[in-house]
């Protein structure tokens, strides 16, 4: 029995598959940072803050597009994180201070002592900025202030689209108030008002503030730098101590064993976290292949529904389109009402003319109409 034909989605393996699934996730992650944060800061931001896009999406989904209660919960989460980071950084700073009193530290390469000093300084700065960020969060008393701090408003050049809808709404309301009774007013006006309120909210909290998000992440970035430089300083110190020097009074053999144990512990301890983290990043990147598959022309007919919209699409587009459609529908309804009012006025004019004994020329026959 012949084998079934391969699926169009199946691809043959090739030597480039390894490069595709190792380099592509890294490049894709960098492109996300570049698309979200801009081309200029991306090359400097990605090496020190590779998960910037995840943080910005977390703020956007859980703060900017939610009510004030949710924003206050996230604010409490940020405050708790600052407390934890301050305690951890204080411990690292204490370890760095103690490390400066290591025996023979002045006799090894200067980079060992420099790394320990850098670790001490970054740990102290991490404690300081953790306190500053926590103080800032404490001063945000309600959800509106939290959203204002973490967001940027809409750009000036993009306001005109919303202004057109708002002015149309005011014109329609003024027309109704002047010409129609309350029971005759269009039922779509309250719905348009709700959409305008939503537009106001989206324009006020248009996008996440990269600067504010960076302020929140500074303490943990400094703590990461402090721990890394402390480990590097210890490594340089133990490496130099493993070289036998009779003036030090220590055995080079024993120091070599200590240095070997140190390297094994650091490498294994780092891999315990680095391997699962890398795999998860790879899985997260490849999860987007399903959306790309559904966007193809040959598969869109199968699913017959739109894929999830890209996160880079402005959140203000949908309510703006809805408001414009509502305004157009209401405007069309007014035109219909206006035409009906003109016809009704014409009929009333004919009736008044007949009742007053006048003569009106028929527009079709051209014959006089007697009383």
From TrEMBL:
Indicate the segments annotated as coiled coil, or none if absent.
152-185
Q: What keywords would UniProt list here?
A: Coiled coil, Membrane, Transmembrane, Transmembrane helix
Entry keyword Coiled coil: yes
Transmembrane region positions?
82-104, 110-131, 210-237, 257-279
Query: Transmembrane helix among the record's keywords?
Result: yes
The protein in question is named Uncharacterized protein
Instruction: Report the domain of life of the source organism.
Output: Eukaryota
């Amino acid at each position: 029995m012949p084998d079934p034909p391969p699926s169009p989605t199946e691809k043959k393996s090739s030597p480039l598959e390894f490069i595709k699934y190792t380099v592509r996730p890294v490049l894709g992650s960098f492109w996300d940072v570049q698309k979200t944060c801009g081309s200029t800061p991306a090359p400097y931001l990605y090496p020190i803050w590779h998960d910037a896009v995840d943080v910005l999406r977390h703020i956007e989904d859980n703060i900017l597009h939610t009510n004030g209660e949710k924003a206050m919960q996230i604010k409490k989460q940020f405050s708790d994180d600052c407390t934890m980071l301050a305690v951890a950084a204080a411990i690292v700073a204490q370890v760095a201070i103690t490390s400066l009193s290591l025996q023979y530290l002045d006799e090894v390469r200067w980079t060992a002592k420099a790394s320990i000093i850098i670790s001490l300084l970054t740990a102290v700065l991490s404690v300081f900025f953790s306190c500053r960020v926590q103080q800032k969060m404490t001063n945000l008393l309600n959800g509106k202030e939290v959203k204002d701090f973490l967001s940027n408003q809409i750009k000036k050049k993009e306001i005109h689209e919303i202004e057109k809808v708002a002015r149309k709404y005011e014109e329609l309301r003024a027309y109704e108030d002047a010409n129609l009774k309350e029971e005759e007013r269009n039922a779509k006006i309250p719905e348009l008002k709700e959409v305008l309120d939503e537009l106001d909210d989206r324009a006020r909290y248009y996008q996440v503030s990269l600067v504010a998000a960076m302020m929140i992440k500074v303490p943990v970035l400094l703590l990461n730098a402090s721990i890394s430089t402390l480990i590097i300083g210890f490594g340089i110190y133990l490496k130099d101590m493993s070289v036998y020097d009779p003036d030090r009074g220590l055995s080079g053999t024993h120091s070599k064993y200590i240095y070997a144990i140190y390297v094994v512990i650091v490498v294994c301890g780092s891999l315990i976290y680095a391997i699962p983290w890398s795999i998860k990043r790879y899985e997260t990147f490849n999860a987007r292949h399903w959306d790309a598959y559904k966007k193809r022309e040959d598969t869109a007919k199968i699913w017959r529904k739109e894929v999830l919209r890209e996160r880079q699409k402005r959140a203000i587009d949908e309510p703006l389109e809805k408001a414009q459609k509502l305004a157009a529908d209401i405007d069309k309804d007014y035109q219909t009402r206006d035409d009906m009012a003109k016809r009704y006025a014409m009929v009333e004019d004919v009736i008044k003319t007949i009742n007053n004994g006048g003569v009106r020329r028929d527009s079709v026959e051209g014959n006089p109409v007697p009383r």
